[in-house]
Amino acid sequence: MKAAKRVLFAGLFHETNTFVEGVTPLEAFAVARGAGLLECTGDSSPMGGALAAAREFGWEVVPAIDMRAMPSGMVSDLTFEVFWEAFRGAALEGLAAGVDAVFLVLHGAMVTESHRDVEGELLARIRALPGLGQVPVFGVFDLHANFTQRMAENSNCLVAYRCNPHTDARASAVRAVGLLERALLTGEVPQTVWCHPPVLWPPTGTGTADEPMRALLAHARALEAQQPEFWCVNVVGGFSFADTAEAGVSFTVCTSGPREGASEALSLLGQLAWENRERGNVCEAPAAQVLREALEYPSGGLTVVAEPSDNIGGGAPGDGTGLLRAFLALEVPNAAVAIADSAAVGQVHDWVQKRGGVGVGNGSSGGLVVSIGGKGSSLDEGPVELAVQVVSISDGRFELADKQSHLASVCGDHFEMGRCAVVRCKNLTVLLTSRPTPPMDVAQWTSQGLNPADFSYLGVKAAVAHRGAYEPIAKRMLWAYTPGPCTSLLSSLGFRHVRRPVFPLDLEF
Ligand SMILES: [Zn+2]
What we know:
By secondary structure, this protein is an alpha/beta fold. It has 2 domains: 6-275, Response regulator (Rossmann fold, 3-Layer(aba) Sandwich), CATH 3.40.50.2300; 285-487, no CATH class. It has helices at residues 46-56, 77-95, 118-128, 149-153, 169-186, 213-226, 259-275, 287-296, 322-329, 342-354, 406-411, 443-446, 467-470, and strands at residues 6-13, 30-33, 60-68, 101-106, 137-141, 157-160, 191-195, 230-236, 250-255, 285-286, 303-306, 335-340, 369-372, 384-387, 389-394, 397-399, 414-416, 420-425, 428-433, 457-460, 476-481. The strands form 5 sheets. Strands 10-21-11-20-12-19-18-15 form an 8-stranded mixed beta sheet. The protein has a 6-stranded mixed beta sheet with strand order 2-3-1-4-5-6, with helices on both faces. β18 (420-425) and β19 (428-433) form a beta hairpin. α1 (46-56) packs parallel to α5 (169-186) and α6 (213-226) packs antiparallel against α7 (259-275). It starts with 5 loop residues before the first strand and ends in a 28-residue tail after the last strand. Zinc ion binds next to loops.
């Protein structure tokens, strides 16, 4: 029998918002080293899917390290160096018995204090390791990556998700493993060719159900069907809240044919993105205006109002008060919103504890005034003081209702919101969480005894990723402008590193 193929596995996953204040420390990352990495085999995450597929192909997995964290501000240098030391150690040990390939689970938009292109730096370091200079380097990455020339040069075939919301993160990882199996069986190894039109789109413009992403993805699928030497054609929406030289929309072709053919296909995709640049630059009307119009024409069911400027999935703190204030000012009926505020949660838990649980759920307020939100970003107006009734408190752990969701691509099967409290003030229900919880799974609410479909208006802190969870239960989906670090109005952010000129920051090219 032929010896099993030995594949070195590692994961490094962080979407870095360089416009969010503060440095993300090592402690923010879930770290699985060596054999610990194998524990997620088969779960809903991309790594879980990739490991399950590797097992089916009979590979011998050489596990290095997996590090993941929710999107947030600039990552500490220590975090990346801890990753690299563990990777290097596992690689050198693994190389003693031979390594046939490397498989990586990446985000693609990670920034540290010293490296604005972390994935490019990582891939270059891998290539420079004696013994890994020639082996196939494959992997999977997020559609919101800021792909770079360095990433293209130092990898063979990195496969992007094709859906936003990312319902296909795990499936994309499995697809990438399948392509590596093809390389291992045939000995044929593709190269990556990259193109980069001067276009930045806010996350609101990167939904794959809408133009221009829909047409770009269709074009990529057609190219794959027409050109058998193209192993995969990736449409990369980019992450406009990472201020890096190569931030923005890009495309890659992983090909075993000549570079020229790939370059030609890429220039067509780049042209298409450029021609549709305005359509991807999706900005919202102010919250008060959006709500006033919605109240004039009630939908007779749930209206979901997204607040992209406080997009938790984009690294925002999730404690912005813009939409909360608009709900209160307009006395929006039967409304709800989730706010990440561990201090407010602490206030409620202390109050409940002091009273031995009396007063929870019975509608009495007992004079509890909570200072809600407005602490995480200097762009916000600040906390809102609300006299509230306590509906419930909990430990905030929930099992995902949808394990193919965008959220599952990050966390697997469970999510920890940290200690939670549900409070009510007149028409408004507020779910207070200790950790920012991206609104990508309805179990965030049902785990607290609330059915989101029972509300008339629900505020969510997202741009696109909430659609998978809420479109099936909503009568109407709206988007509203509020101040915050994930604003769709890119020209209002202070870019310093992105290449210029770039749309929509510049008018002349
Ligand atoms: Zn993404």
